[in-house]
Write a structure and sequence with these properties.
With 338 residues, the chain is of the alpha/beta class. The protein has two domains: 101 residues, Roll (CBS-domain), CATH 3.10.580; 225 residues, Spore Coat Polysaccharide Biosynthesis Protein SpsA, Chain A (Alpha-Beta Complex). The chain is built from ten helices and 17 strands.
Length: 338
């Protein structure tokens, strides 16, 4: 029902995120009583995060105040807008919201053809002694190993063409998947004969399989990221690489002093500093991968730095749950959440 997608301008960004995650209509309507004031999409949320807003920011700050709308009787305009817009707010002559009309998408249109590469060749030294005999991607959560849970979440978006890079205890990972019956998923292995860094395994992909942007995920990352939105964001950004960025907060345990010309301007008690950090999830265009020298060690940061110079790297700010299972502390958290 449309009322489930309506918020007031005093509602919070976190309220809009809940609606966007739960509703099949990926549009939030902001109203004053019934009058339409603006709309919020997932893209609006992520742009606001990049501009320094947070989950407690008011919807009035982040909404689009000039959305494309149509009068309820203007069928020609509605049909025209549906060519370029997934959802069209429909209003009456007094700008009261009447309905949201959505484009008709057949279920199979949501299948994604993008190949996935899960980087699972590292030694996981920070998790010793747990990784002494077991590669980190196979460390158990409550139900399945880490890498199996990553694949299950990919399956939710019909991302079924999966490559796993392996080096450290490669046979253990291969044996695990050879013993599993994972329906609707095609798993292949990129076998490193020596460590190839955090991105060198991409050069082992055959040119014939990389006809669309490739999603790359570190084998120790658990996230509820919406891959449909990520791919759409990448395609619209028109960049060679998109780096997913999570927000990391650090609270300074003291009051900080702001000064100017030896005069105190303010004292801020225990401020929280927010930083964007590399979330270990990327989308890379085919030509980037095809340009890599075969079977040569290279890190993802080296590739990113090259394309930063040509302004070809975009940022996808994440508001979804994200956890890097690279430490004993985070591994414990992951086991409790699974």
């Amino acid at each position: 029902m449309i009322k489930n997608n309506i918020l007031s301008e005093m509602s919070l960004m976190s309220d809009a995120i809940v609606i966007l995650n739960k509703s099949s209509i990926k549009l939030v309507i902001i109203t004053d009583k019934k009058k339409l004031l603006g709309t919020i999409t997932d893209g609006d949320i992520r742009r606001a995060l990049l501009n320094g807003e947070n989950l407690q920011s008011k919807c009035s700050i982040i909404m689009n105040r000039k959305p494309r709308i149509a009068d309820q009787k203007d069928y020609d305009l509605i049909n025209k807008l549906l060519i370029t817009h997934k959802h069209v707010p429909v209003v009456d002559s007094e700008n009261n919201i009447i309905d949201i009309i959505s484009e008709k998408i057949h279920e199979t249109d949501n299948y994604l053809m993008n190949p996935i590469v899960i980087m699972a060749g590292g030694e996981g030294k920070r998790l010793l002694p747990l990784t002494l005999n077991t590669p980190k991607p196979l460390l158990p959560l409550r139900k399945k190993p880490i890498i199996h849970e990553i694949i299950n979440r990919l399956k939710n978006y019909h991302l079924n063409d999966i490559y796993i890079s392996v080096y450290y205890k490669a046979d253990a990972i291969k044996d695990y998947f050879n013993s599993q019956d994972i329906s609707d998923v095609k798993i292949q292995f990129l076998e490193e004969d020596r460590p190839l860094g955090t991105a060198g395994a991409l050069s082992l992909l055959q040119d014939s399989v990389i006809n669309s942007p490739c999603i790359i995920i570190n084998g120790d990352v658990l996230t509820d990221i919406n891959y449909l939105q990520l791919i759409d964001y990448h395609n619209k950004a028109n960049k060679e690489i998109t780096v997913c960025a999570a927000f990391y907060d650090i609270q300074i345990p003291f009051g900080t002093i702001e000064i100017e010309d030896n005069n105190i301007l303010d004292i801020v008690e225990k401020p929280i500093k927010k930083y964007l950090i590399n979330a270990g999830i990327y989308i890379v265009n085919p030509n980037v991968i095809k340009s890599l020298k075969s079977n040569t060690s290279i890190d993802m940061t080296d590739i990113i730095e090259k394309y930063i110079k040509t302004n070809d790297v975009g940022i996808f700010p994440m508001h979804e749950q994200w956890l890097d299972i690279g430490s004993h502390e985070n591994y414990t958290k992951a086991r409790k959440k699974d």
